[in-house]
Write a structure and sequence with these properties.
By secondary structure, the protein is α/β, with parallel strands linked by helices. The protein has helices at about 35, 50-55, 60-70, 85-95, 110-120, 130-140, 210-230, 235-255, 260-280, 285-300, 300-315, 320-335, 340-355, 375-380, 385, 395-400; strands at about 1-5, 25, 45-50, 70-80, 100-110, 160, 175-180, 185-190, 195-200, 390.
């Protein structure tokens, strides 16, 4: 077990800060998508979730905005669960050939937005003759599994409209794709993939089920915490976390109780976006590293996997991240305790919130078999795990996972 956290946040000679250039936030602002899109193009390729678009309550406002701004539009793809290489390959092979003046607009949860980001990037970078060839070309552009082929051509302009408050996909430069056939979940990543515009309409999350609010909300909090304590953390993302995290911690229980609470909707939508900015400009940690592998092995929902693994990550990193956890704890109510006590209190607060949310606490609840824990530990060493303050060997990680089986 190695603690490889940087000794100081100060003294940076350089840094990169990547965020979407246009962000509009507020209740009812889905009506402005058409106006924003006119700066980017004249034709809308719409990508929507299987159910979220029809139930989010903003469908007619969105389409009216397209019409009022003289934009033609067509639904070219629907996302079904977390996007796969095969789904994206099928979509790429069935998109219209004419890409002139096209703007890709994705309306849905993080999976739909990742689907849209991948499609907008690949549409200008690959020209496959078949779905099979498309799959190979996509894999070659994914981190850690292909030939490392980069995204070189600018993607089609992409505009994100999230209908959940959790993943922060609307703020990141990557799209997570799984491949059941090859048994991996990896990212298509490029600075060119940051959305050109984001419309954050908190009202849209009011139609989400309690289960979705719980899973996405805990995912949001996990991203805020892991980006705050990760090895690659630095001042600007941390400042954003300190502003958004306390609001989210107070808002999530209220939203679970009443999805129509507009103040809670706003706090969670804002925090989700900030979590995406923070993770995209710093990094993540153990919870996200293992969650990806758990998704491959068991088909586990990403948000629920993060919820089960967040207490493990906090325990593993508690000693080295004690001051950071204490800082987050003190931001919640202003009460100052010795760092060790405050860090422990923070962990207990998170466990209590997970209990309120009703999220899984044991890996066995996802259908994981005990004899697959070693595989899970071995396949959790992606980019997220590299940011964890404490670097664990596969055998050390296996021991930690055994404790929550």
């Amino acid at each position: 077990m190695k603690s490889l956290r940087p000794s100081s946040e100060s003294g940076r000679s350089s840094y990169d800060l990547t965020i979407p250039p246009v962000v509009r936030f507020g209740h009812g602002r889905i009506a402005e998508v058409g106006h924003v899109a006119t700066v980017l193009g004249k034709r809308i390729w719409l990508i929507v979730g299987k159910r979220s678009f029809s139930t989010c309550g903003g469908r007619e406002s969105l389409l009216d905005g397209f019409r009022q701004n003289g934009l033609s539009f067509e639904e070219i793809a629907h996302s079904h669960g977390e996007p796969t290489v095969q789904q994206v390959a099928n979509a790429i092979c069935n998109i219209p050939e004419d890409q002139k003046n096209v703007v890709v607009v994705a309306v849905g949860g993080g999976a739909t937005i990742d689907f849209g980001k991948a499609l907008s990037a690949l549409a200008t970078n690959i020209k496959p003759d078949s779905e099979e060839i498309a799959e190979e070309m996509i894999v070659d552009r994914l981190e850690g599994v292909g030939r490392g082929v980069p995204i070189v051509n600018s993607p089609l302009p992409f505009l994100a409209v999230p209908t959940t408050a959790g993943t922060g996909a609307e703020a990141t430069r990557n799209a997570v794709l799984s491949c059941p056939k090859r048994r991996f979940k990896k990212s298509l990543r490029s600075p060119l993939m940051v959305p050109r515009a984001v419309i954050l309409d908190p009202k849209l999350i009011g139609s989400c089920s309690r289960d979705i609010i719980a899973a996405s909300g805990i995912d949001c909090l996990t991203q805020l915490i892991e980006s705050f304590i990760c090895r690659f953390r630095w001042a600007v993302p941390r400042a954003l976390v300190l502003e958004a995290f306390p609001q989210a911690m107070r808002a999530l229980p209220r939203l679970l109780e009443n999805p129509s609470d507009e103040t809670a909707q706003s706090a969670m939508s804002h925090a989700a976006f900030i979590s995406g900015v923070s993770l995209g400009n710093s990094g993540l940690g153990l919870a996200h590293g293992v969650a990806a592998a758990l998704g491959v092995e068991c088909g586990a929902s990403h948000g629920l996997a993060c919820a089960a693994l967040l207490p493990v990550a906090l325990r593993v990193n508690q000693n080295i991240s004690e001051c950071d956890l204490a800082r987050l704890d003190q931001e919640l109510d202003g009460k100052t305790l010795p760092a060790q006590e405050s860090a422990q209190r923070f962990i207990e607060r998170i466990k209590d919130l997970c209990r309120i949310a009703g999220t899984p606490t044991r890996l066995s609840e996802f259908g994981l078999k005990r004899d697959r824990i070693a595989w899970l530990a071995e396949h959790s060493s992606g980019n997220s795990m590299k940011g964890n303050p404490v670097q664990l060997s596969p055998s050390e990680l296996q021991d930690e996972l055994e404790s929550v089986f």
